[in-house]
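Whiteboard transcription, Tuesday session. T.W. wrote the structure tokens on the left side:
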């Protein structure tokens, strides 16, 4: 084998290794978010987190009285839930398609954080996680949490998804399919 053939062979091997390494990097970004291996809560469905601090909030221990249930479609920004008052526990379940190349996503979303500077409703929270909006304030809802509404408050649920308009890096709601289910219980 002459010198040029060895150089070409070596460059081919380097290019192949680079492709494998980049492929692994892309996999880490676009991994299946619902598998226990990659979930931010290590598969513990009874632990909920605040959006920035990742501090666990416990499931309520008081008596729970069912108030309402329904669906959170992921192909629109916000779904009006109604007026809530008092101490309520919200549980969100199921999987929906928010990024078709990856597949179903649960309400905790991806481990990847929504970047600042893009039109996400809650930069700093998990991409594609379930959100709650009330009093012009948006928080991560994920698989659920307990919230006290001291006065009657209009409440909305939606996904942490960009709108697909100017500044977006994807089609936004246009390629989303399905819905998550929610259950709201009064905690006594």
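and on the right, the sequence the group agreed on:
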């Amino acid at each position: 084998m002459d010198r040029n053939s060895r150089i070409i062979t070596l460059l081919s091997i380097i290019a192949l290794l680079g492709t494998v390494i980049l492929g692994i990097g892309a996999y880490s970004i676009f991994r299946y978010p619902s598998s226990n291996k990659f979930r931010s809560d290590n598969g513990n469905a009874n632990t909920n987190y605040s959006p920035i601090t990742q501090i666990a909030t416990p499931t309520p221990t008081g008596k729970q009285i069912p108030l309402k249930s329904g669906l959170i479609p992921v192909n629109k920004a916000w779904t009006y839930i109604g007026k809530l008052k008092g101490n309520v526990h919200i549980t969100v379940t199921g999987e929906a398609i928010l990024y078709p190349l990856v597949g179903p996503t649960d309400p905790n979303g991806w481990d990847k954080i929504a970047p600042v500077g893009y039109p996400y409703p809650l930069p700093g929270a998990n991409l594609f996680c379930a959100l709650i909006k009330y009093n012009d304030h948006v928080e991560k809802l994920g698989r659920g949490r307990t919230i006290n509404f001291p006065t009657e408050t209009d409440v909305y649920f939606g996904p942490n998804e960009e709108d697909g308009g100017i500044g977006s890096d994807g089609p936004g709601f246009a390629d989303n399919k399905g819905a998550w289910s929610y259950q709201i219980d009064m905690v006594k």
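Someone added at the bottom: The beta strands are 48-49, 56-57, 64-73, 79-93, 96-99, 103-105, 130-134, 137-140, 144-159, 179-187.
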